[in-house]
Amino acid sequence: MGGTAEKRPRGRAESAGGPVKPSVAAVVVTHARPAELRVVVAALISQSRRPDAIVVFDNNSQLPAAEILADFAGQVSIVRSPKNLGGAGGFAAGLQEALALEADWIWLMDDDAVPEPDSLRELLAALALAPAQVGALCCAVLEDGLLAPRHRRLFSRLSGFEKPIGLPRYQEALVAIDTGSFVGFLVSSRAVREVGLPEAEFFLAYDDTEYSLRLQARGWPLFLAPRSRINHLRTPGSRLRASLFGGKHYFNIRNRLVVKRRHARFSRLAACDGVCYGFLLWLLSRGFSRPGGLRLLGRALRDGLAGRLGAFPAEFRELR
User: Hey, what CATH class is 2-234 in?
Assistant: First the structure.
């Protein structure tokens, strides 16, 4: 991987009098979303409490991020991968780059996640309400102007069942959660150094859920800070249920099974939940009407139950 990351925020950011403030490095993972990437970076630069460093991890986009962000030269560090590592690999590599900056916190997001102007300031303000040891703080996620609660969930360590945080809880100042997507995920560098990086072999989907559960298991709790908000630019047509059964569905079903069986005490019950979910998603996304769809579902279920991770199976390339 090539890169131009600058090592600016060493430890804590300087403060002119008063307590020393924590330093923050933002990490944006991008692939093939040039217009959205510019919007995200502009929003980071315009934060009322600006990140001390901004790292863009370019997952081998056809149009390089360095060209897309030429107007932001000197304000953003860009690291380009020679191949697409998937979202999971991108976040693992991006976190590794950010750790070298020695910031106290690392703020993770995709290239379609636009933080509101006070998003980072509100996250850091929420730290005062949290326990002394915090693994991660998460923004409230909005899609089409509405709260998207499935980004912040509870996870049963017995059965592996998941449910989103209820909307009334978004009226609170701080809410304990079990899992959070990497859409506005502020993670402690200390926690990352102790727990390790997200698992790149997930390639796409559920790597953030697995990482959240791993943080918790090592004594690093997670919280939702509802006053911090980030807008996820996902359109209704891009949702799994609205798109034809293919690669994203394979990763979601496979990885969901792996995570549930890995982190639930009653792994067989968790596996049943994952298998039922897989069949339901196959039906809702018209997998039954796509040639090869049922075979791809079978492969996702087999790989998930066996714990096999990695890239998309080559024999299903036409369904990617």
Answer: alpha beta
